[in-house]
Amino acid sequence: MSAVPTHNPLLASSARSLAPRVQLQTPASFLPAWGWAVLVVFVLLTCVATPLLSLAVPQGSAMHLSQYWVGLAGKILCYAMVALAMDLVWGYAGILSLGHGLFFALGGYAMGMYLNWAMNAASGNLPDFMQFMQWTHFPWYWVGTEHFAYALFLALAAPGLLAFVFGFFAFRSRIKGVYFSIITQALTYAAMLLFFRNETGFGGNNGLTDFKVLLGFPMGTSGMTVSLFVASSLTLAAMFLFARWLVRSKFGRVLTAIRDAESRVMFCGYNPQWFKLGVWTVSAMMCGIAGALYAPQVGIINPSEMSTANSIEIAIWTAIGGRGTLIGPIIGAVLVNAAKSWLTVAIPEAWLYLLGAMFIVVTLFAPYGIVGVWKQWRRRRG
Questions:
Q1: Which residue has the higher pLDDT, 11 or 66?
Q2: How far apart are the first and last CA of the chain?
Q3: Which of 78, 174, 181, 324 is 20 to 30 Å apart from 47, CA to CA?
Q4: What is the distance between the alpha carbons of residues 235 and 288, in angstroms, rounded to a whole number?
Q5: Which pLDDT tens digit goes with each residue over 56-79?
């Protein structure tokens, strides 16, 4: 896949100067007026219109939005968060990860542990897989997850800590490019095999499921589905603003410089290792938040979320939408998963072929994704 053709943000002074001056280009405004307008419309549609259409409009009405569609939209918004996190490391730092499914699943497992505790508190029974293993109590590493706040913290800390430790050794060894991608894929595959084992205490092949209560409210109701959808939309909007702030900061501009010319950045006095490690860890934590919102909306979290195919799909969403743009991966994740939801029902045997065809077409004819095609069209119109 070709590199993203963006400007080099490092402007060095003349070579004749004894002490080259390095200046990072001043970024444009935080968000253009049309960008704020789109963001406000998105928030109004998801936080006002959707709850009204789902809860206030009678079910027999043509305007009624069913619980199924709200739940599906909430799940896709979680995927959009993961695509946004992928764009930070791939689109801006040039690090292609094929292991983001692992961070996403860890966030989901953290929330799933809390939901299993909540089920235990309501029914007095341990989860089915623990009863099958003839356990009489939760394992020690589940301690604390009976508290919602701790589960949220764990959804951030577990993927963040794993990413930090893994990234520290990988970036210190200057592993990059296709080698880094292969290692992340191997890490994800190893974790998936570990979680498949029943004795690890995470439900084995079936994972964590049978969620019944969240914060004292019953799961599976229309009100809970809409609440989780609204929480997902607000989190996605907040993540987008945070990512926008991050890439416009000096930290983000150095990241872009590392992507375009890492050796030159080193000559200018920056240490790329810490910049890459920082964005890599932040990206993993964003995936953990997405996973924590995903698990209660889908009702299950299992090791299949760590499959290498899922991590590759995340990269495909980002490529199709347009990496290095922030909004592009969100569009890519929404469009591809909406198409997947329809096509896997209409013509399930053709979905993987269509997904592969989309990726090939975008790579060959629109290497900058949907957003790149839109920008080219606007330039031609002047």
A1: 66
A2: 28
A3: 324
A4: 12
A5: 888 888 888 899 999 999 999 999
